Structures are given as structure tokens and as C-alpha cells.
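One thing: mind reviewing this one?
=====
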Amino acid sequence: MELLSLLYPHSLSLAVSMKRRDKRHYPADSLKTPRFTGPFTFARLPHVREPEGLDAAFIGAPFDGGVVFRSGARFGPSAVRQGSLLLRLYNPALGVKPFDILEIADMGDITVVPSSLERTYENISDAIRKLLQARVTPVVCGGDHSITLPILREIKSVHGKIALIHFDSHLDTVDSHFSLRYTHGTVFRRALEEGLIEGDRSVHAGIRGGLFSEDEIKRAEEEGFTVISMDDIDRIGARKVAASIAKRVGDYPCYVSFDIDACDPAYAPGTGTPEVGGLTSREALLLVRGLTGLRLVGFDLVEVSPQYDHGEITAILAANLIYEFMSLLALSKIKRG
């Protein structure tokens, strides 16, 4: 108890003060019904079709038409739902029961068009717009990283330019692949060009591996981004890095995009563009938990490709990272009263 209070000084008081409300949306009771019984939804939350009455919604975007290497992220949302079955009600690290605080449900998957990025973008925009109009925070599971761009477009229409916290092994700021301007590696180049994100408040974290040119990182920094490499995280430590990210973002509305390949292939082999030397699962959790107190307006987790996974370790890690983000949203709601 004493150690927990030192690491997360807010957690114990929150744990004491929270009482479960009458909830319309709540996970199935795993002490009464086995976790391996379906239908399978994220964290065994109820499945709903409409966003009214929700604080946040888990929604899948099973599209991988933007990849330039290994495909398969279209199966990510279903794998992450399966990997979420062991999630429980209380998050002791953050001292919160997110499903007690939030009205949250699984809204299923956005209807994607496998052969058309343009049509899929239209469908993603429509779905996210519907959530935002109902004042519901989107918690999106991809799919490849190309799905983030239409989400950011809709976020901008409500919140204006936002700060971006981007966990990834790659910058995803390439201008084009094979003369194509819309892929999973160009998403933040387009976001900058479209004025969706505020570079001076934004961060790329976990960057490592080879680059297409020696100017990639320099160019990102010239556009205002803070670029935090894995060498930086090794040297500084995950807790201090998270604190520095939070300080940079400040009180700006903030969107978090987490590419699972930010994590080392030893912890997340199930992804399309693995890079050695990445985050451990523990470091990834610490980085997300360290975003407590930010004005979070949305989250996505992308690039889970279960056919390269084994033992569901990537899907289970992805599900836990999403659960941590939901816990952050619950803490934010408590803070707002």
C-alpha cells in the first residue's frame, strides 16, 4: 500500500472514494459466466448500436488496405476482443474501476471496404462523427495506421488542432509509398499538411530502427515534434519520459495513437512491420499510465496482426493498453466531477 501510494499518489484516495453507480453498460460477471462464453466483446462489455448515453465507445476499424509490407491487421479488432477476456474491473496501478465510472460499450466494427481506402475513410469519418456528435470519446482498434487520418479529421472539426502523442517504432511521416500518398506510413505527413495536429505540442515516442534518409528525424523536429527514441527511453526511463510528454502537451486537447510495433517483437510479434529493440510490455504500460491528467479526446491502437502472433501475447498486450486508456478516461471524468 505504501509503495503504491509513492508510485501513484492519487490512486489510493480514488479507490476509497469510488462507489459503483447503477450502470446501463457493464461487463458480464466473470464470476457467474465463464469468460470463454460469447458473444465476445471488448472486456465483455455490452454490444450497442447507438452511442447515446455513453461516455466512451470501443469500436473496431478492421482495415489493412494501407499496409506496404505484411497484411493482416484487418483481423486486429477481433483478436484484441479475444485478448481482453481476462480484463477485470479494478485497475490497481491507477486506483480506478473504469467501468464503474464510465458508461462504455463495444459498438462493433466500422463497415470497411477492403478494396477502397477512400470509401473506408468515408465510413470511418461517418462513424467517428456520430460518436463525437453524441459527446462520446472514441477508443478505436485498428486495422493499420492509415485509419488514424480520418479520425483526426473528425477530432479537428470538434476540438480544433490537437496535440498528438504517437507511440511507434516509425515516424509515419513518409511523403508517399509507390507514389501513393495515403498509406499507413504517410498518415502524420498528411495530418500536418491538413492542419490537424499542433506539431509544437506533439510527440513521437519509441522511434528506432533504420530510416529512409538521414533527414527524417531532423525534418520532424523542424516541424515542431519532439522525437523520443528508444535510446532516450533507455537512458531516461519510462516514467520520466511519460512526465516529459505530459508536460509538453500541457492543457491542449490530446489524441493518443499507439502502434503496437512500438513494443519489441519479443512482447508483440503479431504486427506487420516489427522492429527489434522496442518497448517491453511493462514500459508500454508505464508510458500510457503516465498520461494521467491530460485532456484526452480519443485513442487508437493499431497494427495488431494476429496471424504473426503466438499465445495471443500481442492481442493481450493491446487489450491491456486499451484498458489503461479507458482507466485514464475514468480518472478524467472523476476530476471533472
